[in-house]
Amino acid sequence: MGIKWHAHCILHLLFFILNFQTNNAAVKRSIDMSAAYSLNTDDRLPKSVLPISYEIHLEPNYEECTFSGLIKIKLSWAADSKKISLHAHHDLNINDRKIKMHKINQKYGDENSTDYVAVLRGSRIPKKNIYVVYLKETIMQGTECILEIPFDGNIWSSAEGFFTGSYENTTYFATNLRLNNAHRLFPCFDEPGFKVPFIFSITRPKELVALFNTPLNQSTEHPKLNEYVIDFFEKTPPMSTFTFGFFISALQLYKNTNITTFSQPIIQMWTLKDDENQLEETYIKIVTIYNKIKHYFGTHIPLSKIDVVCIPDLPLARPVDNWGLLLFGKRDLLRKGLYDITHELIYQWLGSWVTPNWWNDAHLNKAIASFLASDIVLEMDGGVEFNGKYPMTTLYSLYYEFSKRYPHSRITGMKQETISHKTELVLRMLNFTLSKKSFQIGIRNFILEYQYKTFCGDDFWESLNSQSLKDGTLKPHLNVGVIVNTWFAYHRLPVVKVLRDYTEKTAILQQKVYLRERPHDVPEQEKMLWWIPILLNRQDGLNFSSGCPYLWMENKKQINIQNMPEKDQFIIINYEEIAPFPVNYDNKNWKMLSDFLQTDNGRKQIPPYTRAKLLHDAWNLAFAGDLSFSAALNMTLFIKYERNHIVWNPVFTFIDQIGRHIDESEVHAKFESYVIFLLAPFYEELDEEVSIEDNWKTDIRTLTKRFLCLAGYKPCINESEQIFEIWQNTTNPNHEYPEASHYLCPIFKWGSLEKWQFGLERVMQFPKSRKLSERTHLLKALAGCPTQPEKIERLLKITILEDHSNFTDNDKFLILTSLTSGSSHYSLLNFVSTNWMTLRQKFKNKTNLWDHLIGSATGFFLTQKGYNMVYKLIEERAGEFDSAQHIVEKSLRNIKEETKWSEENIPVIEKWLDHLLANI
Questions:
Q1: In whole angstroms, how far apart are CA 181 and each of 160, 164, 185, 192, 316?
Q2: 436-450 and 280-297 helices, crossing angle to 10°
Q3: Domain Peptidase M1 membrane alanine aminopeptidase: where (predicted)?
Q4: What does the pLDDT look like over 408-461, one tens digit per residue?
């Protein structure tokens, strides 16, 4: 039965029961202003005094959202010292006059001795979460003591530290101590490297249930409060403070006698009674996944239970993974698929049992968990959940990010995420090149060696290295740590170029930094070298099952390889994208690959991942200026016959990117004919959409239809017209919306001004009862799809010049951003030039909007014509750009580079398109 907290329900304040009293604490229910002092390397503690164990009791005041507690820390002196440094959040109240410490009589093992040490005072280090206890005497090395600290603090409404939440008018209480939130709850050594056992007890209302890392040992009646009990839990194994956690609620234990589980650990689920009928499939899934992970690691985790809590409303982006206690939001837990649960369960081994020594290795722990979760899920469902997008989606985004002149320059928070993704791909590379068996045994050895301990990156790589040398899957002169360090040394990726000598049957392999964004003026790029596994396949003996490298490019810029096939036989390097790098070939090898893939037998012999890689590499290398666009476009010809969605995934990105680059030129109409040539056969073969079908089929149908519509494919345009007319003829169009919203763009691009005006009226009359996302999508289509200047001019006049009340500043930002695609920025630049004085005055006090307007109007031209127009504006309005001066200067530089690209490549593309279209 749920419990509702009201003032009249609790008549007493809670009291301490272990010989200490409650200290009043200020109630703080939401924002913690001192959270700015986050723990970093400057907050690391000295190693002169070390924890051996913790004993903690908590007395929450559930009504007031405060708590009091007492912690007893068993300490050992590693060096002589008369002070103790530990972590304590600024919100945690500590009365230094009540701190006690006594020495342990080590001769007799008496932890309750009366040999007290005088405590002079306790104080905080300014702007750090460190609390220092000063002692009257120096404690000698080797001494062990018990330090007792009473404390009190706040239960937060934000999901960090000790927090509270609610569901269906019922309150729950929980902890989220990752990364460094344990010191919000109790004074401690809040670093992952300090792993010690915990003994924990907590007071709770009788009608609620308390869960902890370990099982309940016993419950006793509260000596002063009849409606409360005290729960005492079993002693934990050694663990880091961030894995400590408890949960208090009215949720019930899910029981299903039809399910047989194993003896260690027992997996228990907690949920609302009404949700029990939804849980059988999820419970079976969790048990199955746990067994798969256990089999991979070769060992159980050393806990007797794992509690999995299904919380109806958990205000967190990801679950809380305490050791032995997982807190999931209901929606996340019941979601279809295996990956999320697999990922969280892996943290029970890697993250809790075996833990990074410091947070700079947390990305490695995350990458290992992510890779293993993906590998296990692929084995369990054959790739259904990933829909062919793993690892390609991650890999392609990394290729793009690391090929920029300044990676992460726009979103600095992306940096750690991309580092983790790259690490995951390096792990995938090792899983192939060292062999799956050596990789797995290496991880098993690693867990056994570092159980209850912490590790740094070198420890993990050494485990893989030792096993691979033992198995002979790594040559004696190679070292895993040396190999991977070259992949982590730069925020870059390499590209390998293969130049074959068809007469001598040899090849030269050259590596360099992969740079796509121009100019390629990255400092010290010549010094960047990688240890690269060269996995080679040849047409006269195709075999894609082996991950063993033909050889390694051992940190060398160039190597020669012998025994290449005959001159009419192609080779493929880095098949299946085993390592994260693109490969370039000479034109003859590219031509042989293109011809082979256009045959039915050829496509059957080369797996989908490799077909996708060849296509992706070709057009990216063309954009980088390392390959002729004629060769890249030749590689797309087999797509007309391709029916595997894995290969199709990168096609739409290619069409979009090249389409944007040539949108301003006369070549664009020819390119649209080419798009129809490629996509129409596949689109016509796709069955009509049904209620239940594979996700890939739905995705491909939608994308194919969208790009065909934008290319002017007549059947698609006609279908769009029919859907749009139904909307126009509805009784109340403001309360309707086309179910297939991708039909809007072709109508606004190819349709009449009248139809476009109808869409604009729907935005201006948009009812508040509808989803705001629908209005956003409609406005983006109105701005980003049309090519006719009159539509763009009318939209800008209403929204920008007339400052219509229906459009907010956020709408204006959205419109300007949408206008940067295609050739609409010509209309935008003309609009800015014509209305310069009015716009400058209007945005005088809105510099963000002014800067965005100037950037959108000047920054996206790709030809000399666009350069001349922007240059003319800068000359005419010299000194009038104000805060946007640096923006137009950057625009000119970028357009100059893009102009070079256009001058070099558009004639090549046009010539290729002319030849293709003349022969179809």
A1: 7, 15, 7, 12, 15
A2: 90
A3: 291-487
A4: 765 556 788 888 999 999 999 999 999 999 999 999 999 999 999 999 999 999
